[in-house]
Amino acid sequence: MNTLVLLKMVPDVVEELEVAADGKSLDTSFLRTIINERDDHALEQALLLKERHGGKVTVVALDAPDIDDTLFAAMAKGADRAVKITDVPEGLTTQTAAKLCAQALAGLLPADLILTGVQALDDLDGLSAAIVAHQLGLPYIGVVTGVTADGPTATVIKEFAGGVRGEFAVTLPAVLGVQAAEKPPRYVPVAKVRAMMKTQKIETVPVAGDVGAATIEVRQLAKPVVSSHAEMLEGSPEEAAAKLVERLAQRGLI
Amino acid sequence: MAVIAEEANEITLENLWKTAEGQRVLSCMQCGMCVGTCPYGDVMDYPPRRIIGMLKEGELDTVLRSNSLLTCVTCYACMTKCPRGIKLTEVLLPLVKELTFVQLSDVPSELQRALENTLRYGNPMGESPRKRADWVKTSKVPIRILHQDRRPTDVLWFVECYTSYHPRGQDNCRATARLFHALGIDFAILGNEEKCAGEAARMVGESGLFDTLMDYNIKVLEKYEYNRIVTSGAHAYDTFKYQYPPRGFHRPVEHTTPFFARHLDQLKPKLTKKLNYTVTYHDACVLGRHNGFYDEPRRLLAAIPGVRLVEMEHNRANSICCGGGGGGMWLDTYYKMKGYERLSERRIKEALNTGADVLAVSCPYEVSRFEDALKTVGGDKKMIVRDVTELLAEALEE
């Protein structure tokens, strides 16, 4: 079971995000990035599969600030190989970034599975993994919460709304967008990460080719307007419900 | 009292028997005093007595696999009571905890989050490091931040994490600042440059994280001129005193409670407001058992007009741990899932039994732990928790 895991860094929202002077992008002066939480789950799922079935786990990421720390931490957790895609052009969108990743991943095949997070803070539509699958011509299942690999196919648990879960059989190789690993991502002691930094190397591959111009342009980035009014509907449940219906009707919502 | 830090720092399990401390460990007569005094001795698979026995027989792997030492809250009780004087909490237990931690297949989730946060943000709660000094804006007295004003200072006040971020810890900060100010002490803080001193990381067995934090803090602390470090963190005090010197960091360090006790003659005339509290004092493990500060907090409390001091059944060297040490601060859920009694609840019941209306503490872990425990045992209408500094500041003239 050889698995490629696509990781990326996203803004760390522990720090307040600020809009840059251009009004279109994030102010990077205090911005810190952190591994996308869902990608961390994708890595955990890959490590669980390796523990169950053997094989190798390769982590792959576009070059970004702090990415080396993330890749070494992934190796300290049990990934066998780390590949960084370098010479990344600026101004990538989810679509163009996914295409670049797909080009790099194509050079790392064959693999049984390509795992990545189903969503990211800057890709809430969950497009990235699906675009990668499309580019590689591989099947894709998203919102995955469990994987059992058995020979040429894998059984995949996919989460739906309302607590419904579906079980899918998928022919390998396939791309999976991971919602959550079967258990929370593991801890890696700092000493192990430091040891990896001393003994392991991150491989680099330059961006393979042109991905074309972005089809989406960011015109404006703005913080949500802060407003502060809340009306508490007093009275018995029946009275409060009647007032609520009245308010909704006033606004033409019912 | 303590093993010389330089010696302790070089001891490993491999060379243990060649060291003086190893010879002391060999002298263990398996009396079981450590088990009897351990607050979790009744639930721990391998309490210190059995660890020593297993170690002698080359069976340590069994101990490590049991994860037994996740239940060690490093309260120094076993070490204090050992008739052979084995420095369990200083040397042997941290070594075994480190090996236990490295092979843990699953780190309990709250602890994992606290450790990851401490590495990334310099505090276990995962708050922004850029907001570490935000509490300063709420102080009634001016507070100098060294990276904004580098003039030498008498006291470098190392505030620590719970004091910087936790709302009740910030009460302690504001009180401490008022006391410094009232005493006319020239003090300053590191502000957002400060990161966790790392004691909990070391004592839970995450030595790599401890080393990272220590290396960082030493670099920052070496940038400025000051006469002494005074810290609000009881655990920070302990680690600055015993663990930082082997890395070449030799600055005088005090904890706020003994520091104010040393200034009691100047402070006492300023404590003019009568408080009318019956107070019982909880001895923090690291300040009491490990460093012998039993009288200092009691002298401070006794100096407050209207305070009547009563003692719990277990006090001074026999004090029961709040359960927050050795990573226990983030293992409450783990202990609860195992069916263990929370030590903060065991302790708060003793405090309530005294009939006191205030539980006084000196360690920033304890305010939130005991306030939570009071709610859990239904005692929050009968007792409040206050740091000694808060009570002193309350008694200060306005």
Structure overview:
The complex is a heterodimer of chains A (254) and B (398). Chain A has one domain: HUPs (Rossmann fold, 3-Layer(aba) Sandwich). With 254 residues, chain A is an alpha/beta fold. Chain A is 29% helix and 24% strand. The mean pLDDT of chain A is 94. Chain A has helices spanning 37-53, 67-77, 94-106, 128-136, 190-199, 237-250; strands at 3-7, 9-11, 33-35, 57-62, 81-86, 113-117, 140-150, 153-159, 165-171, 174-178, 203-206. In chain A, strand 7 (140-150) and strand 8 form a beta hairpin. In chain A, the strands form 2 sheets. Chain A has a 9-stranded mixed sheet with strand order 9-8-7-10-6-1-4-5-11, with helices on both faces. Chain A has a two-stranded antiparallel sheet with strand order 2-3. In chain A, helix 2 (67-77) crosses helix 5 and helix 3 crosses helix 4. Chain B has 398 residues and is α/β, with parallel strands linked by helices. Chain B is 44% helix and 9% strand. Chain B is built from 20 helices and 9 strands. Chain B has a 5-stranded parallel sheet. Chain B has a 4-stranded parallel sheet with strand order 7-6-8-9, with helices on both faces. In chain B, helix 13 (234-242) links the parallel strand 4 (226-231) and strand 5. The chains are: A alpha/beta (254), B alpha/beta (398). The interface between A and B is medium-sized, with 15 and 22 residues.
Summarize this entry quickly.
Chain A has helices at residues 37-53, 67-77, 94-106, 128-136, 190-199, 237-250; strands spanning 3-7, 9-11, 33-35, 57-62, 81-86, 113-117, 140-150, 153-159, 165-171, 174-178, 203-206. By secondary structure, chain A is α/β, with parallel strands linked by helices. Chain A has a single domain (3-206), classed as 3-Layer(aba) Sandwich (Rossmann fold).
Count of DSSP-assigned helices of chain B: 20
Calculate the mean pLDDT score of chain B and round it. 95
At the fold tier of CATH, the topology name of chain A is Rossmann fold
The secondary-structure class of chain A comes to: alpha/beta
Q: State the distance separating the first and last CA atoms of chain A.
A: 54 Å
| Biggest interchain interface, per-side counts | A-B, 15 and 22 residues
Strand line-up of the largest beta sheet of chain A:
9-8-7-10-6-1-4-5-11
- Overall mean pLDDT of chain A: 94
Tell me the major beta sheet of chain B. 5 strands, parallel
**What percent of residues of chain B adopt helix (DSSP H or I)?**
40-55%
Total number of strands of chain B: 9
- What portion of the residues of chain B fall into strands of 2 or more residues? 5-15%
Radius of gyration of chain A: 22 Å
The CA-CA distance between the termini of chain B, in Å, is: 41 Å
Radius of gyration of chain B over alpha carbons?
Answer: 20 Å
Biggest beta-sheet profile of chain A? 9 strands, mixed
